């Protein structure tokens, strides 16, 4: 198994610390608002990583944190706390906000068939661990105190800029609104924040009543559940420059070494029509896609068809096409397929997933299997075996609304008319179908029928 390690900027042979056991920590969601499909893209990709390792025989422990406190609107220390902003927006307490959006997050995981992590620790439930960790850094001389709180002194960690190749001397700090003017270096960061009278979520600490900085929870919780040194730490590429850089600094401050041996980062889901934004009304959640009539696993199909470091350009058209492909795969279902998996195809599949999770290549093997002349039982058994990694629930009955045969027949006739470029007839048939209460939507090479 080879994985791309951000720490060394190259693909490396993956070697677990202990036998075949693998510990993975993934930076999880901040539960202050709905997780949209862009957020969920990351979690599906790390679910694929976990599934790949388990498929290859590793015993994986997966930890993902839930940030429910102390996370500002930007990665740095500045800006309003996201949880409290959400609470103001909705007129409920930050605790209620956290609960509400944690549920939406878990629901999204389930709809996308993400394996639920072994541990989903919450920041608010690990305040003592965070205080303990910051105390360790303090004892080892990596911190100083200001009126705003306890600050990590980056000058004590000579390799601070190394992980993200930061050019600190060129960093434009003029644009940053600093909450703490007493910082020695602009990139020094707060471990514990005090003297914020308007902040609702607060706890006692050796440095006064306050709350932890965002970066602290990930180092505290990853090491609590996986040990001071573990195998893989994941996150989005946006985490490299600040969040993970600071996590590594914290680990060095507290333990004198890095926590994770491999740091893996996903690129982003972007929209074909440009930026995802609430004002443009194109920020989709998994729940919304489902309400629009899509199978959430069609989104998963799109994600498993791309590489985690390449990102995904999303559009509703591509989602429709993905649903067609997904249902095509499901149509190879046979009863009592048995367990005879084709060795040769399996080897090709394993080669792809072992190469830094090359999912596009793995999906090529899936379609090669479909097109092969294997007997239906072996074909289906092989596809089901691959589905342990894909997580597409291929075994599920094709999710079609009950479309009467009469309607399907009319739609088929219409497609024929279209192919013959008989537009008049195709429009006439569309009208008949519509009058009977159904809508035909054209896809690239096929069509979809929906109840109106
Ligand atoms: Zn994190």
Describe, in short, the structure shown.
Helices cover 41% and strands 15% of the residues. By secondary structure, it is of the alpha/beta class. Helix 2 packs across helix 3, helix 4 (127-139) crosses helix 5 and helix 8 (296-304) crosses helix 9 (316-330).
**Number of discrete helical segments:** 14
N-to-C span: 49 Å
Number of strands: 14
- Which hetero ligands occur in this complex? zinc ion
Task: Trace the largest sheet across and list its strands.
Answer: 4-3-9-10
Number of domains: 3
What structural class do helix, strand and pairing data support? alpha/beta
Rg computed from alpha carbons, rounded to a whole number of angstroms:
25 Å
Strand content: 5-15%
Overall pLDDT metric: 91
Low-confidence stretches: 174-178
CATH architecture heading of the largest domain = 3-Layer(aba) Sandwich
Indicate the CATH topology of the largest domain.
Answer: Rossmann fold
Q: Which CATH first-tier class of the largest domain would you pick?
A: Alpha Beta
The CATH superfamily of the largest domain is identified as: HUPs
User: What assembly state would you assign to the polypeptide chains in this entry?
Assistant: single chain
- Give the overall silhouette: globular
């Amino acid at each position: 198994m080879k994985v791309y390690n951000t720490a060394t900027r190259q693909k490396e042979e993956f070697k677990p610390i202990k036998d075949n056991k693998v510990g993975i920590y993934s930076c999880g969601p901040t539960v202050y608002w709905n997780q949209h499909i862009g957020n969920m893209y990351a979690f599906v990709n790390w679910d694929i990583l976990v599934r790949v390792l388990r498929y290859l025989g590793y015993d994986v422990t997966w930890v993902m944190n839930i940030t429910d406190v102390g996370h500002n609107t930007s990665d740095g220390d500045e800006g309003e706390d996201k949880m409290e902003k959400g609470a103001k927006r909705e007129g409920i307490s930050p605790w209620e906000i956290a609960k509400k959006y944690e549920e939406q997050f878990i629901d999204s995981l389930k709809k996308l068939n993400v394996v639920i992590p072994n541990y989903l620790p919450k920041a608010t439930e690990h305040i003592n661990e965070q205080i303990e960790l910051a105390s360790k850094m303090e004892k080892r001389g990596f911190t100083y105190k200001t009126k705003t709180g306890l600050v990590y002194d980056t000058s004590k960690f000579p390799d601070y800029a190394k992980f993200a190749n930061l050019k600190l001397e060129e960093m434009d700090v003029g644009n940053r609104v600093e909450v703490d003017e007493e910082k020695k270096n602009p990139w020094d960061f707060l471990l514990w924040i005090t003297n914020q009278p308007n902040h609702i979520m607060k706890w006692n600490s050796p440095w006064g009543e306050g709350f932890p900085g965002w970066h602290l929870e990930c180092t505290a919780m990853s090491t609590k559940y996986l040990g001071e040194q573990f195998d893989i730490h994941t996150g989005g590429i946006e985490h490299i420059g600040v969040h993970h850089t600071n996590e590594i600094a914290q680990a060095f401050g507290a333990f004198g070494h890095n926590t994770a041996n491999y740091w893996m980062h996903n690129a982003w889901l972007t929209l074909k029509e440009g930026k995802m934004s609430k004002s443009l009304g194109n920020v989709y959640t998994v729940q919304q896609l489902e309400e629009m009539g899509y199978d959430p696993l069609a989104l998963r199909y799109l994600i498993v068809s791309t590489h985690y470091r390449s990102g995904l350009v999303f559009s509703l058209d591509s989602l429709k096409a993905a649903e067609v492909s997904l249902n095509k795969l499901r149509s190879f279902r046979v009863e009592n397929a048995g367990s005879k998996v084709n060795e040769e195809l399996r080897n090709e599949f394993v080669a792809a997933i072992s190469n830094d999770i090359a999912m596009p290549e793995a999906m090529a093997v899936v379609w090669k299997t479909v097109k092969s002349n294997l007997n239906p039982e072996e074909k289906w058994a092989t596809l089901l075996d691959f589905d342990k990694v894909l997580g597409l629930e291929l075994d599920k009955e094709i999710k079609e609304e009950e479309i009467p045969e009469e309607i399907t027949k009319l739609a088929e006739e219409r497609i024929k008319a279209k192919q013959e470029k008989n537009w008049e007839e195709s429009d006439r048939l569309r009208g008949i179908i519509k009058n009977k209460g159904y809508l035909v939507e054209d896809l690239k090479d096929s069509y979809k029928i929906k109840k109106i």
